[in-house]
């Protein structure tokens, strides 16, 4: 990849992706295809007043690497040029990461409001004088200092598009909307937010591996760790005690859970088994109605190996399991009642046989001659045998006894009353 002096480059160093500005490019035999520069720091990782999402700070840390380490290149522009180009990175001052000191300490101001320019907000640079003005401070299309015409470009988005920076997808605060978890008291919620924020800041300084497999696996580890931190905060809210699980212990447990899922899927994230279990696991662990599952994993009652083999029914919350059991019980009762009504109806009309009654002659009533029934299955055959072998009172007693094995007394009486069978 060809680079020139003054460009911002994203390069790989010790397994991490960083940004730097290229100062010189060497092509001699001693340092063939090497480049030298200074490290850049993203302003979004060290925000300051009036800093923008597309802004970087220049540091004094020297960088020396081969061209093969470069992953992408983009322009590095000053404020006036960046106002016109609206691409690449904006550079305005130096930064010392060790002390957190900026140089210059304050940004220069040239707008009529005497405030520095925030590049995320609409602004315009006058071509006739050094003024750089906020669009919101203008009353017309002329520069208030030299009265020359201004070319005001109002972007569709107030934040210009910045070069893509490959960072870990570990915004743990986005994973947890702390306010939707009812078991957290205000103190535990604040503590959890601070912990997640600190971990987010640490992870924002790291960058992801180019391997997509590592990115997906790391995403699951982060989600499991967030669920474990949530469970620890919920337990502290309930018993007001200090939980003994340290951050290192929870991190190790999240690694074990992800490793168990990975190896159970034949060490491949591309198979449907891994993706399906991934979604099921994350949904149930972060479900606000399912604190019992998180607590069981945290306490070791459910091992990582057992967790990854559980299905959605096993992971469901106690409330969901009870609701499912009630639905199944209701369905079973409805089926039993329907079956009992059908059997009672058949018992009431059990003397009817195929062949029926022959038509009489000259008004005489024909003699009833039962004929053999063509039995389609054993259940019908058994029913007809019961009707033939028992009196109506005995048959009613058998039906009451059979229904009593499955239904409550009130339900038995309701079924018998519907079938017009004496239930006394």
Describe the SSE topology.
Elements: E1 8-13, E2 16-26, E3 34-42, E4 55-66, E5 70-74, E6 76-77, H1 79-85, E7 89-96, E8 101-103, E9 123-125, E10 132-134, H2 172-175, H3 186-205, H4 212-239, H5 247-264, H6 272-285, H7 291-299, H8 304-308, H9 312-315, H10 318-348, H11 378-389, H12 392-404, H13 409-418
Compute the number of strand runs: 10
Radius of gyration: 38 Å
Q: How much strand?
A: 5-15%
Question: From the helix content, strand content and strand pairing, which structural class follows?
Answer: alpha+beta
Short structural description:
The protein is of the alpha+beta class. It has 13 helices and ten strands. The strands form two sheets. Strands 1, 2, 3, 4, 5, 6, 7 and 8 form an eight-stranded mixed β-sheet that branches. Strands 9-10 form a two-stranded antiparallel sheet.
Q: What characteristics describe this protein?
A:
424 residues, alpha+beta, SH3 type barrels, 3 domains, eight-stranded mixed sheet, two-stranded antiparallel sheet, 13 helices, 10 strands, 41% helix, elongated
């Amino acid at each position: 990849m060809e680079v020139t002096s003054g460009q911002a480059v994203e390069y790989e160093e010790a397994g991490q992706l960083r940004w730097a500005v290229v100062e010189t490019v060497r092509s001699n035999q001693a340092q063939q295809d090497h480049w030298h520069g200074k490290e850049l720091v993203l302003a979004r990782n060290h925000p300051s007043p009036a800093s923008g999402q597309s802004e970087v700070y220049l540091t004094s840390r020297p960088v020396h690497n081969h061209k093969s380490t470069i992953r992408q290149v983009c322009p590095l522009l000053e404020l006036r040029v960046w106002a016109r180009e609206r691409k690449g990175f904006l550079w305005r001052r130096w930064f010392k990461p060790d002390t957190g000191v900026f140089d210059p300490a304050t940004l220069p101001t040239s707008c009529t409001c005497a405030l520095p320019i925030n590049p995320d907000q609409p602004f315009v640079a006058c071509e006739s004088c050094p003024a750089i003005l906020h669009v919101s401070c203008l009353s017309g299309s002329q520069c208030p200092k030299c009265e020359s015409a201004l070319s005001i470009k109002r972007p569709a988005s107030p934040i210009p598009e910045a070069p893509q920076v490959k960072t870990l997808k570990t915004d743990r605060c986005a994973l947890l909307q702390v306010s939707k978890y009812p078991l957290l008291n205000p103190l535990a919620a604040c503590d959890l937010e601070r912990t997640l924020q600190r971990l987010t800041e640490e992870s924002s300084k790291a960058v992801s591996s180019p391997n997509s497999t590592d990115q997906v696996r790391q995403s699951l580890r982060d989600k499991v760790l967030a669920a474990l931190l949530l469970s620890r905060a919920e337990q502290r809210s309930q018993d007001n005690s200090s939980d003994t699980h340290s951050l290192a212990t929870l991190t190790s447990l999240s690694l074990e859970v992800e490793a168990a899922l990975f190896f159970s899927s034949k060490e491949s994230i591309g198979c449907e088994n891994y993706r399906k279990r991934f979604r099921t696991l994350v949904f149930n662990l972060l479900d606000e109605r399912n604190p019992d599952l998180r607590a069981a994993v945290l306490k070791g009652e459910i091992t990582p190996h057992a967790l990854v083999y559980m299905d959605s029914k096993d992971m469901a919350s106690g409330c969901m399991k009870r609701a499912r059991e009630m639905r199944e019980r209701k369905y079973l009762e409805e089926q039993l009642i329907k079956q009992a009504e059908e059997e009672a109806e058949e018992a009431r009309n059990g003397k009817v046989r195929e062949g029926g009654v022959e038509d009489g002659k000259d008004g005489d009533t024909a003699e009833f001659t039962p004929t053999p029934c063509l039995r389609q299955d054993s259940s019908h055959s058994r029913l007809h045998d019961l009707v033939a072998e028992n009196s109506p009172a005995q048959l009613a007693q058998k039906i009451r006894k059979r229904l009593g094995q499955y239904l409550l007394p009130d339900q038995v009486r309701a079924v018998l009353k519907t079938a017009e069978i004496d239930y006394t």
